[in-house]
Design brief:
Helix content is 42%, strand content 16%. The protein is of the alpha/beta class and 439 residues long. It folds into two domains: 150 residues, Rossmann fold, CATH 3.40.50.10860; 257 residues, NAD(P)-binding Rossmann-like Domain (Rossmann fold), CATH 3.40.50.720. It has a seven-stranded mixed beta sheet, sandwiched between helices. Strands 1-2-4-3-5 form a five-stranded mixed beta sheet. The structure holds nicotinamide-adenine-dinucleotide (NAD).
Length: 439
Amino acid sequence: MNFLQSFEEFYESAAKHLDIPKGLSDQIKSCDSVYHLRFPITLDNGEIEVIDAWHGEHSHHRSPLKGGIRYSSLVNEDEVKVLASLMTFKCALVNVPFGGGKGGIKVDSKNYTDNELEKITRRYTFELFSRNSLGPNTYVPSTDYGTTSREMNWIYSTFKTLSNSNIDSAASVTSKSVTQEGVNGRTEATGRGVYIGIRELLSDEREISRAGLKAGIEGKRIIVQGFGNVGYHAALFLYEAGAIITGVCEYNGSIYSDKGINPSELKEWLKQGKKIYDFEMCETSEDPWFAFYKECDILIPAALEEVINATNMYKIKAKIIAEGANGPVTFEADKYLTNSGVIVLPDLYLNSGGVIVSYFEWLKNLNHVRWGRIENQGNNNLKEIDLINNALNETMTQAFRELSEKRNSTGKYISYRQAAYRLGIEKIANTYIEMGLFP
Ligand code: NAD
């Protein structure tokens, strides 16, 4: 089963329980459109390379569409379609009024210079702009695997130039640097959201006792796969709340320590260009999977999709799987693990912190004024970071309550993923029905 088939199975397994006309359900499931773009860039050595890229628009039931842009050598059309679809259901689930979109450029950033990456980014932005597929009211990208605020700043600057300084240019892309009209707290928002979601689950004593765990984050043993934006920040917030980060896996190796790893120290180590498998006071290996299969309370896959699948699901020794990444557990593995008593906190809910704070950034950009500047008559006590973090906390806590209510309302045990899909699909179906598209 490939990534697209796995997503379709998740969708159908939830939709079959809902009272929605088949035609409407087919519309909600399928991706409205996907572009395959090919464009040339001149490399620093003077050679010309043709770059493959995609832009997916899953659902226009709300505007604009939202979803990150990924730079990876593994990007392909089906992946972009699935990732755009996940964005639609994620936004519906956490009450962010956007449709789902996604972008992907088939490059491994490590193989290009900064200058080349800037050219690729600006050209991709032009390609989207010229198709009316980028802008504050059409598609608003943000960061994803392989991209940071740097690429978002380049997109903003290109869009602004092409749109003749459209007054709302800043709202054409989120996750920008704070000095480029971004918001405080966006960089760490997805990881913070992962922490909030895990905290909420761990406060439900009855639920987690099924997995043989006691309530609370304190002392929980956690392994993280992917120490990038999402994985590092999730590890950091959980560590600060008293969890023990026992393992970290990267693409070129992994490390394990019963005593725990300090995420900030590891980050500093990697920033200096040192290898993860040389990190001190740990069991280390050049095998990225060495720490992945160790026993733990919570495993956080925060790199790429399909990493827990039919071939390795038997090796997982975690009580909770917390999906920082999009689509890390396949349909088959999800079924097997859930039946074995493992609690899976699904991507649709758990990594929504990024899009929630991107929504706040978009609102700020459209308002053209920082929060509190007018309402509080110069009272500077209102700090943007506190407003953002409180609103993120409130949105994710509320969404967790909705998820729990959905699970309890069905009368028999359903997984968090089932509840998330059912809630998302129902909300989108209602929007279509109320708009009168499906009388
Ligand atoms: P990132 O590029 O910042 O980090 C990804 C990390 O994973 C990198 O450090 C990379 O070296 C590592 N990695 C790659 N292959 C690996 C492997 N085989 N084993 C272990 N580690 C590996 O990306 P990110 O923004 O943290 O995104 C990670 C996941 O989270 C993606 O699935 C993305 O779609 C999802 N996500 C990201 C955001 C966001 O705001 N950035 C929001 C929601 C979901």
